[in-house]
Each structure stands twice: as C-alpha cells, then as structure tokens.
Amino acid sequence: MLPTQALIKPTYEELVRKVQALEEKAALHSQTEEALRESEKRLRIFIENTPAPVAVCDLQMRYLAYSRRWITDYKLDDRNLIGRSHYDVFETIPSRWKAEHKRCFAGEIIENEEEPFVRANGDLEWVRRKVYPWRNTNGAIGGLIMFTEVITERKLAQNALIESEEKYRKLVDNATEAIFIIQEDTVTFSNPKTLEILGCENEQFRALRFNEFIHPDDRQLASDMRRRRLAGEDSLPTTYSFRVINRHGTEFIVELNAVRILWEGRPATLNFMRNITEQKNLEASLQQAQKMEAIGTLAGGIAHDFNNLLLGIQGCNSLMMMDTDPSHPHHDHLKSIEQCVKRATNLTRQLLGYARGGKYEVRPIDINQIIRTIADMFGRTKKDIVIHTAYQDEVWTVDADRTQIEQVLLNLLVNSSQAMPRGGSLYLKTENVNLTKPLISQHNIPPGRYVKLSVKDTGCGMDEAIRKRVFEPFFSTKQRGQGTGLGLASTYGIVRNHGGFIIVDSIKGLGATFTLFLPASQKQAIEDRPAARLLFTGEGTVLLVDDEEMMLAVGREMLAKLGYRVLTANSGQKAVDMFSRHRRQIKLVILDMIMPGLSGSDTFDRLKEIDPSVKVLLSSGFSVEGPARQILERGCNGFIQKPFDLQTFSEKMRRILDGT
Question: Are 531 and 651 spatial neighbours (Cβ–Cβ below 8 Å)?
Fold first, then answer.
C-alpha cells in the first residue's frame, strides 16, 4: 500500500467522526448561535491543517472547508474559497467528474486510481481522486468530502521510467548479441537472440541448464570461469570463448562477456554472448593463407636455384647430343639425362606453381574442352573408375595458362583415383556462377562471375586434421616413395595465382569434393595450334649476363653452337659498362633477372638509358609473372624460363632479332 493511500483513509475516517461529533454538539447546543459558530470554526481549523489535499462541500458543491494542501497542490489563489462553488473555482472540471458527484450524493463512494486533468490554462495534470458523501446528525447526506491529490511530477517520473524501461527492453530484444542471466546454472532471463543461437523456444531454454549447451570439452572451462566470477575474482579476463552445440546439433564458437549482479536478491551473472564462428573461420583462413604464403616463398626460392642447376645440366647435355651420333654408345645415356632433366623441370614447375610463381602463357580457354581431353585420357588408364560428367552449356571462358590448368585437373584426378584403390565413381561438373555477395567458406570469395568446377569422388575421404594440411607442399599420407606431396600443393598455388579459389570438403569414409572457382573472362576461347620445333642459327654479337659462372659457361657454348659471338658479364654493373663500350656491335642482351648488386630490373633500365632501342631477352628461374612482367611492360622484348633446351633458346632469340 502506497504512503498516500495509507494517509488518505485514516484522514477520511477521522473527518467523518469529527463532522458527526460536531453535528451532535451543535444539536446539543443549538440554543446558542455562538456554540454553533465555534463548532464550525474548529472543523475548518482541523481540515485546514490536514496534511492531505482535502475539501468539504455542501449539496450545492459550495466549499465549507479545505486544507492548505488543496490550495498549494492545485495552485489556486490564496483567497477565501468558503461559500464559493467548486465548479466556479475549477472551470474545466470534466463532465464525468460532475456525474460522479451526483452518484456520490446518492450514497456511492467514488475511487479513481489515476487520471489526467486539464487546467483552464491548458496545463495537463495527473490526479488521484477519492470522493465520499458525509452525513449530518439525522443521517441525511449533507455534502461531499473530496480527497484529490495532484501526482503530476510522480506520474511524469513513472512515465519516464516506463519509457526508459521500454527503450532498454527494445534494445535487449533487438540486440545482435545474446543477453541472458544465469543463476545457479539455470537461465532466468534471455533475449530472442539467445534463443536463436541455441535453437530453442523460451520455455525449452528455461527448462534446461546452460551447461547442457556447452561442448563437453569446454564445460569445465566455462563452469570454472562462472564460479570464479561469482566469487568476485578481479583477475579474470573480460571475455573468453568456447564452443556450444544448439538443440539442432549445430556447433558454434561463441565469445562470452559476463558480469556479477544481484538478481532478485541473489548472486547471478549477466552474460553477453555472440557467435564468432564466422570470424574464427576467417582468422583460420588468414593464418592458413599466411602459412602457405611463407612456405610458398621458400619453395619458390628453392625452385629458382634448382632451375639454374638444371639449365647447366640441360645446356651441357644439349651440346653433347649435338656432337654425338645416335649410334654412339653414350647417346642413350644422354637421352636418359635429358629425360631426367624434364622430370626435374616438372617438379620445379609444380613448386613454382605452389609458390604462386605465375602463369606462363595466359589466353582465354574453354574449360569444358580441357576437362574432356584430360578425362578421356585418364579414363583410358583407369578402367575401374566410372567417370560421370555434367558440363555447363556455353560455359564462360577463363583467362588461364592451358598447361597449368591441365596440370591442376590431372593432379585432382590422380588424387581421387589414389583415394579409390579398388575403383569407384568420379563426378566432374562445370557451371557458370555469378556471386552477388561474398561466399564465406574456407576462403572469403568476393562477388563476381566465376566458372565453377567440382571434382567429387567416392573414395576413403579424409578427417579434419588432414583436410587442413592437404595443400601443404611435401605433405602426403602415402608411404615414402609413393608420392612427392606436391600435386595438391601446386594445384592450390596455380588456382590462387589465376585469381581463383579452391575448396575441399570431405568426411572420413564418404569421399571428397574439390571445388574450384576461376574468374570468368569476356573473351572468346583461342585454340592451340602446335608448331614444329626447329633449331635457329644466327650471327652477330650477343651479351650474356648472369651472376652464375656455370650459367655463363654453358650459355656461351650454346650461343657459339648457334653461330653467335658471345660477350659475358657476371654482374649488372659490368653488363652496363660492357654495353657502353660495344653497343654498336651487340645485337641482343640475354639478361638474368635475379642478381646481387645491380638487379636485372635496374640493369635493364640502365641499358635503356644508353640505347632506347636495345633488344633484351629476360631469363629467370621464376615465371613470367611478378617482377618479370613489370620489366616486359617497360619494353623488354621477351622472356625465357630456366631451364630451357637449345631449340627453345634459339627460337626465342630468332623471334626477337627478327622482330616477330
């Protein structure tokens, strides 16, 4: 019961007793008017000093008495209201109040909790009203006693509190984070986001303990943190993360921020929880990408140095084969060396592919045509594997190096066949896709037009630990000697270097699916036309620049065999000096890209300053992408990747010298 209510009721009862007592006294002393006036005076003094807003009226609603609070609460003029009509003093009394007065004259007691009242000046007030009839000594109703308290300030404060609570309720109900209270391991309050994350209705949630949603491996951590939080430990971290499993069996990673509170007089924790699964996946993808990038840099450096060695072997071997008759007993050995160099070159190409060493010959290609060719060839060698195909009609073209994409497809098919040693089914599918929003998976694939290629097998599959490492170079689940561990690594690098993405999904025992997204091209596909390989000879002076003495020795002899006079320089600065002295005689500069001191790029710029028309063939163990592409864009005439054979070398030189 509110204090004002407690005050009003005793005041009324006391007033009734006083009125009746005075009436009786007036009857007993009616013989003297002086006694009557004294009685009325006492009544008015009592009512005037009553600590509540009260007024007494007769049957014509004229004031007989009123309290000081009646004047102050209603902000009335401080003048005598005795004998004045209540309706004249309050000109804006609602008609329903007048109707209530009539009912009260009939003996009814009127009690209204709270209602608005508009003053004559337009101000809105809130009042609490109670009206009682009073009776004279003969029992007849003599008028009304009105208790009317102005509660505007209190009402405004209550409305402000309600409005504030409504704001906070909307804030909590529409929050993007789960907000809930845990008391004695039971959820006593939760917002809609909590129920959404945990996949249950409010009644279901309240019937369960929060611990039941926490992953079994993380329950002890969460329980310890909550217990220590309730104990008031200050050293606890502000937030911590753990896994939850909702009612549908879906696992999430959540981040929780909890504070200790009192809820209904008992300790509890107020918890703010958000789903960070997507964020954690993106972080893991970024860490994996950074790891692969670091390994790729290392692999690329190894491949570059290895290619330099292979060029020395290949060059010497080519020179010896030119001087060796096929009937010579060493000819077959030389052919074997050549085959070994080709196999080693393929390995370094895979390493460079993984290291994002670049594309070699980019042109618009028809992915369907390449898949058909590779699948037909593969199917003839793997009779126990049934290949199912679903190719997109009018598939979009892709700007890519055909040889590298063929290598990607072959790697994927070989990997699938090794996962099905007793045979199985292989599903190849292409489709045009237009992503209108980022695709969140193992990679954050941006919107755009892609050609999507999927390779699905019915093999043994892989667990999550293997799936996370499947693209790492030299990682293999095969026995020693049965694989290099570079197949899928180079596939990953080649796809990423083409601006694409590769995703692997697998469940142990249920096969695996590799999905590629390659950016689509607007160009028409260009068909390859193989050309006959010839050895092109020439004449004139060639400047050979390389920091490796072995490269200079082999290159000098190869150029001499082709008919050229050779000048050599083992550094960029020496090359610039030699070109300054002999630029009129030098027809072509063969320039190594990676050199200490003055790099191949800087050397090229210096040569161009001396003679803007100089012809330069760039040579590197890396691919044409990256720094080499930048040099070509600045006017370099051509590029050749190490190792190369004599025919390829002679062809590249002839094209530059002839300007074709």
Answer: no
Which residue, 564, 545, 551, is CA-closest to 653?
564
pLDDT tens sequence across 566-605: 999 999 999 999 999 998 999 999 998 888 889 889 999 9
Asked whether the whole model's pTM tops 0.90, one would answer no
Rounded-to-integer distance, Cα 370 and Cα 398, Å: 11
- Tell me the longest C-alpha to C-alpha distance in the chain: 165
Strands 63-66 and 110-118: unpaired
Note the pLDDT tens digit of each residue in 150-170.
787 787 887 777 777 777 777
Half-sphere exposure of 378 (CA within 13 A, CB side): 24
At residue 466, the 3 state secondary structure works out as helix
Which residue carries 């010839």 as its tokens?
Answer: 534
Q: How far apart are CA 529 and CA 485, in angstroms?
A: 33
At 424, list the tokens: 């199985």
Asked if 636 contacts 368 with a C-beta cutoff of 8 angstroms, the reply is: no
Q: Can you tell me the distance from the alpha carbon of 559 to that of 588, in angstroms, rounded to the nearest whole number?
A: 12
Q: Are 545 and 592 in contact (CB under 8 A)?
A: yes
199: buried, middle or exposed (CB in 10 Å: 19+, 13-18, 0-12)?
middle
The CA distance from 229 to 238, in Å, is 10
